[in-house]
């Protein structure tokens, strides 16, 4: 539980809780949680710490999900469609957060259909199809693979 942080594509939040209350609640699940204020600041939600979850934009909710995953110092972060429903300004912020996690030596595993995001992250890409690896390598290598083009890109 302390080694993996998970960010789901969508979750059912307790909309009547604030950002700070939500993270304080999740901190109780861990034996050695990080400081809630530190986590709020690290994901850029400091101005929203007292805001009710139901008032947050889709991108701000993604940042809150990221904060939940970072309540410990996980070795691996798993992200499910981190860019889904996020406006362009917050996409850049999320991209920077993910790059920072990689810089810190954390493994970042994600499922994503936003190819611009995948390209900009500049990481190893693995394309799965029906449970098997279809292609693996750099973004350019994978997107030029005839099987990937045929199954996913349709060029």
Describe this structure as you would to a colleague:
The protein is of the alpha/beta class and 155 residues long. 41% of the residues lie in helices and 16% in strands. It has 7 helices and 5 strands; from the N terminus they run βαααβαβαββαα. Strands 1-2-3 form a 3-stranded parallel β-sheet. Strands 4-5 form a two-stranded antiparallel sheet.
Query: Kindly, what is the distance between the CA atoms of the first and last residues, rounded to a whole number of angstroms?
Result: 42 Å
**Unreliable runs, pLDDT <50, ≥5 residues?**
none
Helix content: 40-55%
With helices defined by DSSP (H or I, 4 residues minimum), what is the helix count?
7
Order of helices and strands: EHHHEHEHEEHH
C-alpha Rg (nearest Å): 17 Å
Major beta sheet, strand line-up = 1-2-3
Q: How many distinct beta strands?
A: 5
Task: Round the mean pLDDT to the nearest integer and report it.
Answer: 84
Q: What structural class should be given to the helix and strand makeup?
A: alpha/beta
The biggest sheet, with number of strands, parallel, antiparallel or mixed sense and barrel status, is: 3 strands, parallel
How big a fraction of the residues is strand? 15-25%
Shape: elongated
């Amino acid at each position: 539980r302390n080694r993996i942080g998970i960010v789901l594509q969508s979750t059912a939040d307790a909309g009547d809780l604030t950002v700070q209350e939500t993270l304080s609640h999740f901190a109780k699940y861990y034996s050695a949680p990080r400081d809630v204020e530190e986590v709020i600041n690290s994901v850029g939600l400091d101005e929203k710490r007292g805001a009710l979850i139901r008032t947050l934009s889709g991108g701000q909710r993604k940042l809150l999900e990221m904060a939940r995953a970072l309540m410990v110092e996980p070795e691996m972060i798993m992200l499910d469609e981190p860019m889904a429903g996020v406006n362009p300004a917050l996409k850049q912020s999320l991209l920077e957060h993910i790059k920072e996690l990689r810089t810190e030596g954390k493994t970042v595993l994600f499922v994503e259909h936003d190819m611009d995001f995948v390209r900009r992250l500049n990481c190893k890409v693995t394309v799965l199809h029906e449970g098997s690896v279809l292609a693996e390598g750099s973004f350019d290598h994978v997107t030029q693979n005839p099987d990937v083009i045929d199954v996913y890109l349709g060029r």
